[in-house]
Amino acid sequence: MPDSTPAVQHTGATPLLQTVGLTKRYGTLLANEAVDIDIWPQQIHALLGENGAGKSTLVKTVYGLIQPSEGEMRWQGEQMVLSGPSDARARGIGMVFQHFSLFDNLTVAENVALGLDGKESFKDMSARLEEVSRVYGLPLNPKREVWQLSVGERQRIEIVRALMQNPKFLILDEPTAVLTPQEADQLFIVLDRLKAEGCAILYISHKLAEVKRLCDTATILRDGKKVSTCNPKAETAASLARMMVGGEIGRVKAAANRQTNVPRLVVNDLTLAPDDLHGVRLQHVSFELRGGEILGIAGVAGNGQDELFAALSGERLAQDPDTVVIDGRAAGHLSITQRRKLGAAFVPEERLGHAAAPRMKLSENALLTGHAASGMVQHGFVNTAAMLKTVDRATEAFDVRKARRDPEAASLSGGNLQKFIVGREILRSPAVLVVSQPTWGVDAGAAAVIRQALLDLAASGAAVLVTSQDLDELTEITDRIAVMFHGHLSEPMATVDASREKLGLLMGGSTLEQKEAAHAAGA
Amino acid sequence: MGLIEAIILAVLAASTPLLLAATGELVTERAGVLNLGVEGMMIVGAACGFGGAWLSGSVIIGALCGIGAGVLMSLIFALMTLGLAVNQVATGLALTILGVGLSGLIGSRFVGEKISLAPHLYIPGLTDIPLVGRILFGEDAFVYLSLALVIGVWFFLYKTRTGLILRAAGDNHTSARALGYPVLRIRMFAVMFGGACAGLAGAYLPLAYTPFFIPGMTAGRGWIALALVVFASWLPGRLVIGAYLFGAVTILQLHAQGWGVGVPSQLMSALPYLATIIVLVLISRARTGGSTAPAALGTVFVPDR
């Protein structure tokens, strides 16, 4: 593919950072292969690619966390060898991690101090922290412990921590994945301001619309190699996606509306206390889900989605059996297995450790959820042939790619394991499917397969409940969307009426506050 | 000397080894390492401490031998769990079994020997004050050392940058590593500190508590020290309260037996251990907020390169 020159003027003759033939090898696997990237000051440079394309490896190398196997990096034209992140920070390279590098039981100020090199006193640092967070409009209370904070606030800590090092070059790894649209907009304002101040930014994201809007240059990686460097504003989202995947992505399409009027999953005024310190209380959650319908639950992570999943799946039991009704039967008091026997199926968010046992074979994992309601157990003995047949059917129907017929779950890539897990449940022809983050961390190809499978399942008359933080995904496949905030679930609205702004406000809790304000005024 | 005064003195003496061992384990656990081998490190510390003191005639050399033995034992643990990423629980249990056997071997030639105990502080005038003089100004050096150690550990953990980094390594080793901190090296030093404290706690028994060595003389104190760390919710201040509370239970049951309370003596002897279990149950039931276990406690960390 041609290497088109970015259409933006560069300030200065040499790039701020150059990688030349950067290669990183893990055994026989090439995580990065001869990657050349030029980063210029005053530019936001997007790094695009599917999962496993080598984006994380590349930025970890640039941040000094891992050493390259071959190739070199040049900083302002001179060769740069980084012994570790503190070396990178000393040169003015900052990083905001995708999985935050925060410490839950430490305070905001302590977390920031750990990201700095400790040359100033804790008191001076705290003062500067308040100064920076005020100047950039990123409010933070230095004395609070991190576990008490929302995801957006946590990210603010990461960003303020990076800003306090006065970075010349800032790396952001999927910063908007966990933010509401409004929070993302605030972040873009900060990034534009940094850019105007002369900072170079490397921006990793899966959200192509966002990249087109924000970034001046984009480099696309595929299988560890650079495919192209282009101007994202001159490309379409589809053309960028094509370069990332190396082919067309199948578009999901909904079948004709098969919605029935039979409620298959009903939740009545479900209130549930949190079962751990950092948990959320479910508050009067109610909704009705009919056969043939897909209901989406949007919301920032940690607003009660995990608790709702546990209450629906039977991992936690409700006080009152009538709070959860599956296919007309009160099920709030029933165990997971009893709920499966009623025709419900569940796909939790965590693939390894919750949905699948990592060190067990796929066939054994099929047995774990299928033992009660399929032919895999007869008179108390497991039927290995039937287990293997389930694996084969899931493999075929959902294009699960694996090295052997029946490997350990942990040996599959995230996308393939997710296809297997969703397939395992769908093959049981459930009446109700509750699925949490169906395509979290899954590449575009596998995500399309999974979304299509959910649509097809609904078309066959099942009720599907999808919890996701990806609004694009929910808009694409659901019929109605409700938003979870602080354990409350909003009234579901038709997906066609659910604008990003409307959802974003609900995700930030606006209407709840309005409701409370009205209540207070009335009292 | 009145009975109350005698009881308080005995309680302080019985509590000191618990406090020393628990302080070391608290630092180890704050760095994210669960070393269940405290009992083993203590008993080897007791054997080596007695041996050192008996051969040299010096309590100080005995204490140093105990500390050294504890550190060596903890290095075995560090090599296994940090170097080779072996499960910490299994390694800690194995360390205790090893320690019990090893101390019998080391201590066999000292059984039946006797040394003179560590001297008690005597400041003319102050120590002679009625009631409180002996208690405040008449203890052996280990009692003061253990209290100074707790204060030092508190200051280190909450007032120094190194202490902050240690707590960070115990809270989230992946983040600590991502920020460029040498998690394994931090943990190794924390484990060694734990070993030194456990060794000293073990040596305290023959050097300042009873002037002889008998196999198994730690009698489960290492396990109580482990429970104390949980009791204290990993906070140094609460550790002092916990250690003296358990010391008091140990001593009071002895006196209760002497007073002829109508309870079988075996049950009375089991009281400190029963108290440990009851307290652990109460804590886990009552936990609603505040400081909890270091989040990375007991997890194996292998950095990627």
Task: Describe this protein's structure.
The complex is a heterodimer of chains A (523) and B (305). Helices cover 34% and strands 23% of the residues of chain A. Chain A is built from 17 helices and 23 strands. In chain A, strands 13, 16, 19, 20, 21, 22 and 23 form a seven-stranded mixed sheet that branches. In chain B, 71% of the residues lie in helices and 0% in strands. Chain B contains 13 helices and no strands. The termini of chain B are far apart. Chain A binds chain B through residues 64-67, 84-86, 89, 97, 99-106, 110, 113-115, 118, 122, 277, and chain B through 161, 164-165, 167-168, 171-172, 174-176, 178-181, 287-289, 291-292, 294-295, 304-305.
Helical percent range of chain B? over 70%
Distance separating the two termini of chain A: 67 Å
Label the structural class of chain A.
Answer: alpha/beta
**General shape of chain B:** globular
Topology-level CATH name of the domain at 263-522 in chain A? Rossmann fold
The fraction of residues assigned to DSSP E strands of chain B is under 5%
Number of strands of chain B: 0
For the record, the CATH class of the domain at 263-522 in chain A is Alpha Beta
Mean pLDDT of chain B: 89
**Helix run count of chain A:** 17
Number of strands of chain A: 23
Strand count, sense and closure of the main sheet of chain A?
Answer: 7 strands, mixed
Mean pLDDT of chain A: 86
Oligomer: heterodimer
Distance between the termini of chain B: 65 Å
Q: Give the low-pLDDT segments of chain B.
A: none
Which geometry of chain A do the CA atoms define?
A: globular
Rounded Rg of chain B: 19 Å
Which parts of chain A are unreliable, with pLDDT below 50 for 5 consecutive residues or more? Answer: 1-8
Q: Radius of gyration of chain A, Cα only, in angstroms?
A: 24 Å
